[in-house]
Amino acid sequence: MEKTQKTLLKRHRSNQLVLLNFLVLIVFLLSACSQALPGTPVITESSTPLPPTPTLQPPKTLIVCLATEPENLYLYGDSSRAKWSVLEALYDGPIDTNNYQASPVLIRQIPSEDNGGVKLQAAGVSEGDPVADVMGNVVALKKGVRVFPAGCTSAGCAVTWDGETPLELSQMVVQFKLVEGVTWSDGEPLTAKDSVFSYTISADPATKVSKTNLERTQTYKALDTSTVEWVGLPGYLTLNPAAFFWIPLPQHQLNTLTAEQLISDPLTTQSPLGWGAYKIDEWVKGDHIRLVKNPRYVRAAEVLPYFDVLVYRFIPTTPEADLSMVITGECDIMDPGTGLEAQMVSIRKLEEQGKVKSYFGMGPEWEGLNLGVRPASYDDVYNPYEDRQDYFGDVRVRQAIAYCVDREKIQEYVTLSQSDIPRTYLPPNHPYAASISSTYAHDPVLGGQLLEEAGWLDTDGDPATPRVAVDVENVFSDTELRLNYYATESDLHAQVRKIIVDSLGECGIGVTTNYLPVDEMYVSGPQGAIFGRSFDLAELAWSTGRVPPCFLFASTEIPTERNKWLGTQFGGVNITGWANDDYDLACEQALSAGLDEELLRSTNQRMQEILMEELPVLPLFFHVKAMVSRPDLCGLDLDVTARSALRDIERLTLMPGCAAD
Description:
single chain; 24 strands; 10-stranded mixed sheet; alpha+beta; disordered N terminus; Dipeptide-binding Protein, domain 1; 4-stranded antiparallel sheet
């Protein structure tokens, strides 16, 4: 037993010795590894340290604040300003508008005869065929229709068809060439077929959009992957062929859906595909729409867009938009739809303090003081015993009103000098705005002289009382020059009314104001005071597009009982009752100018001269639109003729000290 224990102890000590020798060997090897081998660089404390791991930068985010949330984002859904502010980020173009002129984005150029994009061909037609007359109206061809025969593109060579002679008409053929390399945000190529697909959807009866351009189209087809061809209805000529390019829709994604299904499908209403700088990421109803940079954007190589994330926030604007949200960074841009025009004084002060940047634009809407030159009661015969006295029969009275109305004060206090005093009803940047010498600067002395010459005298020597008629043609003697004045209820109209009433009073013209709700202002005749032509003065806003609306003052558009108060074509909008043969002729020539740009320009010049001499309406001011942004935002401008103020959203950047464009 003792021997066995000694043997076990000896073995235990032997194992301890082996373990000790093993540990010594390990220590030796570790020590050897710590020595530098020949040719191996030694890292010391003085060696260059490894570069630090870069800090991940947060995405650059732009926040645009909108007054309303779009109902949907479907191209053929509602056409609200808020919707198009969002779609500008998804759809780059395809054709922008700069100062009333078309500018190519998705297409290589605006087609024209000069660049070969527009050609004319002869189209044979027969009685009953759909054609366009010289005014651009779609009609069935019959005897008496005035048209552009083949080879004719201006009113001077137009003919009235006799119903028998074989007839060929001028027909426009327009080709649109797409920019190369454009893809949808899902990577699929954008092709000419996508535009044709959009055309087909818009033509479907289920798609509730204006069919005006469709009615003037004979064919619209893809010639190849990058070329779309539009062929107009025989006889239809336009100086704006860009209007006949249909905004593409992704055929590869939507071609299994019907036009009716597209109206409500989330693919079109909530997350539509685009080819622009951004794509939809999320839509939180009632709060915001978030978009992210489109990596397949055709201009990505230009490092566009600058911002990685684009957020559209929906903010309350009642009673008015909160400008402090721009200062605090809750909004980088406040869209023009937020109604900032009433806060122009505050905006200017904040800009002077360097806290915001402001943008203002005027038009295309303009406010006019319409004169009831010929009330509807004159249509059969003027009876001074029953009808309103003929206040405006003498043009000198209308001109006196123009001199007496203090438009300079309206410009200064209502538009804060952000609107020019109109020389005509077209804004000064309009391509057909005329150079008018008669500006009617505020001159109550000259206004008074004209009234004196017309027989309206201040018989009591009291300027606070209205003048009276003394030997005024078609006016009873001693009739007071007291006029009724109609306007809609608004703060803007209250400001304008006060200036007009006070300044007319200085000339001895009394004014009685009548405010109407908007719906009553536009009631048709004979019930409505305005469109029933039973007013003296009416303040009303009109708008203009690229082609001036000369029909506003054409005699054919005087609303009467005979035409059921609707005029002959444009809804009976000449509420003044004024008629002038020279003006009517010039307007007819302008509307039937075809492709004669010089005729369109000269006739519009002549019409504006006649209007500002005859003065059935006095243009008061152009409506002002306002937008604000953070002070270091660059690349933003406010073109009121564009579809949206965010037309160039892909080129917006941040740079301290840059001025407003």
